[in-house]
Design a protein that fits this description.
2 copies of one chain form a homodimer. Chain A is of the alpha+beta class. Chain A has 5 helices and 3 strands; from the N terminus they run H-H-E-H-H-E-E-H. Chains A and B meet through helix 1, helix 2 and helix 5 of A and helix 1, helix 2 and helix 5 of B. Chain A binds a DNA duplex through helix 4.
Chain lengths: 109, 109
DNA sequence: TCCATAGTTTTATAATTATGGAAATAAAAA
DNA sequence: TTTTTATTTCCATAATTATAAAACTATGGA
């Protein structure tokens, strides 16, 4: 991963609204959520939400698919994991710096 | 972790210069690097570097200690790992979304 | 004591990013 | 075909963040 991409991803997460959206999507699994579903938890004007979703998509952290009038957004787990790996690359000089940061799946519904 | 703190941490990493500094420190291990050592790889004006180090410190991702005329900065691995854990919290609806993102220590020097 | 070195603070300016109303697009329902 | 619903794009304004020169602080030599 290039530093430029990492900065783009981190920037897209570095905003309270977008981080909230991303975490919703991370927890929603592969099916994702429609824009309306995302917004029912957020309460922000549609153009603002759309702007933030676009930022996340541009950074590659989420993808979207059309389904009729709806657009479903889903977390891109691969991109997320690449970002996390980039941050910890070659860390801590061989000392053990911490427990694993696995992507631990939540409880199955 | 509160979303507010996570945003602060992510914002501090969402800048090419700061991300570069942080990764240097992550790889430098617990001993850290002096400001001058950090800068020998970066080539930026001292006030700019100082500004960025302060941002990282304010976010809690790095700490510093004085030693004579020098100030050594070191990565805060605990904070880093908490941030990574926050991003992946309850992810992916019980599907397995990816390989672990361990903090894998680099080769010991 | 005087000077050089290491780093920070202050501050004005420049650059970037976010917000949300109004208008636009596109698909389904009436 | 008209209307409604879902969402985006456009765009002007507001808010935030970054840059680096100048001045400052602190420590360790000479």
């Amino acid at each position: 991963m290039e530093i430029f991409e990492a900065v783009k991803s981190l920037s897209s997460l570095a905003h309270e609204t977008r981080l909230g959206i991303f975490r919703q999507l991370v927890q929603a699994g592969a099916a994702g959520l429609s824009v309306g579903e995302v917004n029912s938890a957020m309460q922000i004007p549609a153009p603002t939400l759309s702007f933030h979703l676009k930022e996340l998509a541009n950074a590659g952290l989420v993808t979207s698919r059309h389904e009729g009038r709806f657009i479903y957004y889903q977390a891109n787990y691969t991109a997320m994991n690449e970002l996390l790996a980039y941050l910890t690359e070659n860390c801590c000089q061989g000392e053990s710096c911490m427990p694993a940061n696995k992507c631990k799946p939540g409880a199955k519904r």
